[in-house]
Amino acid sequence: MTDLAPYAAWDDLSSSAREDLTARVVVVGAESTGKTTLTQDLVKHYRARGGIWKNTLWVSEFGRDYTVRKIAELGISFDDDAEFRSADWTSKDFAVIALEQQRLENAAASAGSPVLFCDTDALATQIWERRYLGNESTAARDALPTLPPRALYLLTDHRDVMFTQDGIRDGEQFRPTMTQWFVDELRLHGERGQFVRGNRAQRLAECVTLIDEVLAERAAQL
């Protein structure tokens, strides 16, 4: 394992310093590609290291909770057609989701270990706004034109995970397009990213290696 000894004094830092220095690792990808599973596996792995790492946190996908609440408010069954549900989205919805996702991320960064795992982020919200409302709708981007620096993006490959409908997902046919949109957007912004492929164990092992390399590089900032 990479030597992460420089982080031993992490708990002595102020919350604002930790918010600035935390390595934000964001897991993104199309629907039903294992994002949440990977995020939770990474959290479990780092917490098991003990010490400062036992307080490793993760930020769940606020947009999912927002979607479930929105559906409930409309009185629509989870068995109804996804296109019908998605037709009610407005630009304002995506601005609200992006702002709250970022607020939750910042709060967690100030309170956890040196690494924070994010199951999506505001950049992903911008991509989903494009999916539902088209290129002309930019409310999420306008609400958050600049995001805090990300240490690493992990993009889950849709080809390795069987699509499972949970009642609110768009549909399997959209996954290849969404995957490419994430690739294009990360390249456009010059973000450090990695395509994550393989089975569950392979994905975890590959990501831990990458994240430890990132943490070792960032240790010099402490």
UniProtKB/TrEMBL annotation:
**NadR/Ttd14 AAA domain mapped to chain residues:** 24-203
In terms of domain of life, where is this protein from?
Answer: Bacteria
InterPro entries per the UniProt record, alphabetical:
NAD_biosynth-regulator, NadR/Ttd14_AAA_dom, P-loop_NTPase
For this protein, the record's PANTHER family field holds:
NADR_TTD14 AAA DOMAIN-CONTAINING PROTEIN, TRIFUNCTIONAL NAD BIOSYNTHESIS/REGULATOR PROTEIN NADR
What this protein is called in its record is NadR/Ttd14 AAA domain-containing protein
Q: What organism, scientifically named, is this protein from?
A: Conyzicola nivalis
